[in-house]
Amino acid sequence: MNRHAVCRTLALTLCLVLLPLYGLTQVQGPVYEVFVASFADGDGDRVGDLKGLTGKLSYIRSLGARSLWLMPISPSPSYHKYDVTDYQAVDPAYGTIEDFRALAAACRAEGLSLILDLVVNHTSSEHPWFIDAARSLSTGAHSPYRDYYHFAQSDGHPVPGAPGWYYQGSFGPHMPDLNLDSPAVRQEISDILAFWLNMGAHGFRLDATTHYYEDHTARNVEFLSWLHQQVKAIDPRAYLVAEAWKDESTILALYESGIDSLFNFPMAGATGWLITAMRAGQGAQIARRVADWQQKIRQRNPQAVDAPFLSNHDMGRSAGYLMFKPQQIKLAAALYLTMPGLPYLYYGEELGLSGSGRDENKRLPMLWSSDEALNTLAPADADQRQRQKQGVDAQEQDPDSVLHFYRLLGSLRAQCPELEHGDVQAVDLGSPKVAAWRSTLAGSAALVIHNVGQEPMAIPLPAGSLLGGWDTGSGMPQVQGDQLVLPPYSGCIFR
Fold it and tell me: Maximum distance among all alpha carbons in the chain?
């Protein structure tokens, strides 16, 4: 081993040793998002459940994922389970508390952290709290839960059986909003946090955070700050990521709460800046946006990390808005999976699954097999079928599949802790078609390079060693003398 290689090895070792000193959480990326009902069945009824999910953890880990996010698993009258009736239980369709404990233990053994969806903007209208409070309005009896909701004698949804009484429900009458100013409600939330953290969760995804106090950023910052403090008091290394489907200024303001991450909605989706710039071949612009966004985040919270993603359960799947073109799917994947922060991967994205329109279509069954009978059933109200016909079984046999590409990117990212927590700078390599950024952590640096143009690109050979590259269909990057030749839509990492 030459002197430079020794130095690089020592730098990487130092980096790994110093990671805990950066105030990092137990949650690392990439993070794999799962809608349990559509993922994997463990009891033969073709409804996804915790046992089925537990049996697929090695698959999730094979993608390079180091954390798992479960959409809501608590009892609920709805298929999506974002209207909870019991915060400290598992929906019977998914299994039992014992099944959750088994899942948490299996995650630890597999090296996966576990993130749970926390829905505290509202409950179900079938929650015992709401039922008791509503009944008290009709009978005049005392209820300890009257203060848990926003009841008034004007405006809102009519309280069943209580003429003249109304309540707030931002997402409809079946989801009454909680009164987050109530000390009793905040105590309930503290108890919920403690329950699941003690059960083996490592953090929470916070649903609908801009609706906590509707369009009132300062009050939402206060509540997120309170949530952050509650979680860290229980487990200082627990993790919080918030959904704030808003503009950049609102997201940046919410970072002032101290929260670990917020989803990068301005980047995501068919009209987000990443896909827009990618389609225009504006590589250098992508690099500048990446570096600028991290700088803005850290100005508000130096310990925060971005949460980039292409699509999620509320959005049309990325394969669809990329026109099911494998090269475009791979390029988009390579771009966001090499970004700083904790990238989030929606289940099936690594296969090129489809789904758009109503929410049920965006949550179609995971395609383990080309034989539909071996997969879960689609949500009852879905009006689309899966366009992708190559399941995991077929794609594992195809070295050029989207699945193998995601696994390659996951493997490369795992070798570069700098990509997750390093300080990022855009690098000008002399072409507007080339996206390049350098991420530096504890003296070790990784240089990411993408050619987002339709023509081959030759650039001066960067310093360091070529860690690895990727071919989206036009060839691999090649070192030729003192130049690096990048075929169209290819990329690589130097360390």
Answer: 85
Catalytic residue among 243, 260, 360, 420: 243
Number of domains forming the structure of the chain? 2
Cβ atoms of 283 and 433 closer than 8 Å: yes
Question: 84, 131 in Cβ contact below 8 A?
Answer: no
Alpha helices (H) along 24-150: 50-54, 57-62, 97-110, 128-139
Give the CATH number for residue 247.
3.20.20.80
CA–CA distances in Å: residue 166 to residues 70, 131, 151, 153, 162: 33, 14, 6, 6, 8
Burial call 124-146: b when 16+ CB within 10 Å, e when fewer = bbebebbbbbbbbbeeeeebebb
List C-alpha distances in Å: 309 to 34, 164, 362, 424: 14, 45, 15, 18
Residues 33 and 128 in one domain: no
Whether 486 is covered by a domain: the verdict is no
> 244: closest CA among 259, 229, 228?
259
171 shares a domain with 319: no
Active site residue 207: yes
Q: In this structure, which amino acid lies at residue 139?
A: T
Q: How far is it, in rounded angstroms, from Cα 59 to Cα 68?
A: 12
Is 110 an active-site residue? no
Catalytically annotated residue among 91, 207, 349, 418: 207
**Residue 197: what are its φ and ψ, rounded to 5°?**
-65, -40
pTM of the model: 0.94
- The pLDDT tens digits for 61-106 are 999 999 999 999 999 999 999 999 999 999 999 999 999 999 999 9
Alpha helices in 63-124 (DSSP H): 97-110
* Residues in the chain, overall count: 495
Last residue of a domain, one of 421, 437, 466: 421
Peptide linkage before 30 cis (omega within 30 of 0): yes
The pLDDT tens digits of the residues spanning 170-218 come to: 999 999 999 999 999 999 999 999 999 999 999 999 999 999 999 899 9
Query: CA-based Rg of the chain, rounded to a whole angstrom?
Result: 23
Domain range for 167: 122-179
